[in-house]
Amino acid sequence: MARPTPLAVLLGLLLSLTAGLSAGPLFKDAQLTVDLIAEPKPYLPGQSFTVGLRFRPEPGWHVYWKNPGDSGMAPAVTWKLPPSYTVSPLQFPFPEKILAPPLVSYGYEMETVLLAEITPPRDLILPKKLPLAVDLEWLVCKEACLPGKASLDLTVSAQPKDNPDLQGLFDEIRREIPVQNPTLPLQVRTRDGFLEFSIPNAPETGAITFFPFEGDYVDEFQPARSVETYGKNRMLRVPLKKGAKLPDTLTGILVAEKSWDSSGHRALELSIPLKSGRSSTSTTDLPLIFLFAFLGGLILNIMPCVFPVLSLKALHL
Prior knowledge:
Elements: H1 6-18, E1 26-28, E2 32-38, E3 49-57, E4 63-69, E5 76-80, E6 86-87, E7 96-100, E8 103-108, E9 112-119, E10 129-141, E11 145-157, H2 164-176, E12 187-191, E13 194-199, E14 208-212, E15 225-230, E16 233-239, E17 249-256, E18 267-273, H3 286-302, H4 307-316
Antiparallel strand pairs: 1-2, 2-3, 3-9, 4-8, 5-10, 6-9, 7-8, 10-11, 12-13, 13-16, 14-17, 15-16, 17-18
């Protein structure tokens, strides 16, 4: 990873903080295009409709998933809606792993759309034209990272024109949103330094990748053991970092090459209490673990990708 000069990082930070206050549904700069879009369907009192924030990074750049990984920052939004309207949290499609040793991030190098559901009040007559607005912040990275922000607005029609291309985009993104599947009784345990996923009665999905919703316990630079098949049961062994602290309940997604269901969903959301076999650490290993933790923290905080994040936190303070 190339290291830009401190002056270049500072200039990029100042430029990105002063840019991006555009009005309208679209923002564009040298690293990223982002726009506010609405699914071309009528909206009705008390019934939610879908809007999206479409991110299109330039080649080599990327934005981040809800869990950014070792470095980065997920996009953050503040909606400006008419009174009594409500909005859901952002729904993130499944990400990809972006490796930049010694760091690994979870994000998007290609076009993606973050979805939100907006619900009008049930007891009001809705206008034919509905104004929406959002304040948006993000971090976009290549060799270095640049924070950005924009204020986007969009007028949605109660009876929009047919737009097959736009509707097709929303349909495609919905298939990339993680889903739960109660018919697949997933089980998870720790064993010999691995997370071991067991999936009874699983379909043939090809290779499977695990993304945690939070935490830093997966060793991303060691290959996961190939999925094994025992009849209709499938197994995935994900390597853990030495001395990793695991949560009591494992949350995340399993992303498969092929879909988990007939609707085409490739990302399976899970929330499972961990079974016995929790990784333990000998007291004789503690000094070495503390040393590596210190070195890892030092490396992380001097990486150029982290400078803008530290600056943002300082500005918030």
